[in-house]
Model the fold of this input.
Amino acid sequence: MMVGMITGYCSRSQVALSGWATTNNQIAFTRKVIYQLEASVRTDPKRQQLQTFLFRTGAFIQFSNRWSLGGGYCLIDNRRTISGITGYAVEHQALEQVWFTHPVNIGSRLHQHRTQMRHRLRLENRFLPRLEQANNSLKRTGTSFANRLRYQIREQIPLVSTTNDFEKGMYLILQNEFFFNISGQRYVNGKVFDQNRSLVATGYRFNRKLDLELSYMLRVVKDASNRNTRENILQVTAFSRL
Done:
């Protein structure tokens, strides 16, 4: 139903729609130390070619069922265009992040529905490629450094009755994420505000180890001329916990 609504809307209004496919995997070394691996492929808004490949890896320590702290590395290979010349250039990132998760009860005391809300604060240390046009191709001439802060709030709402832990069934995701450039603004869009991502998703939890989600995201990006560029994104995401 979600795919049909979005496809019908885009066909009527000629709105560009990018496609993202993502896998997010967690492997528990111990009860507290978790290794995380994420990969994503993303198309351009016309869905004709690959726009971005993302690879993110790292680890985090789970201090309790509410607090986690971690860090890692991210590689982003992005398609760029300068003066009509197109090529791919890699951005490297180091990242540090913290999660805080807490339950939210919806409804009256007699008919409460238990949901989970997660807050994530991530600092990205970005090593951005400096590019110039040379011989009908893009040549990397150096690296610029910038820091970006991301705050994400995400709520998972089970659509089945649960007692304590949510182990199987359909669920709904409501999510929003803010991006702020806190240093090196001249190397990106020249602004503190970078972008906002609003997402709604429906998913199915097969068991405690595997989730599959289909989501719609509205991405609003601030460019150097102070205009907001809007991008509609349809995303499929697989989560595994081993």
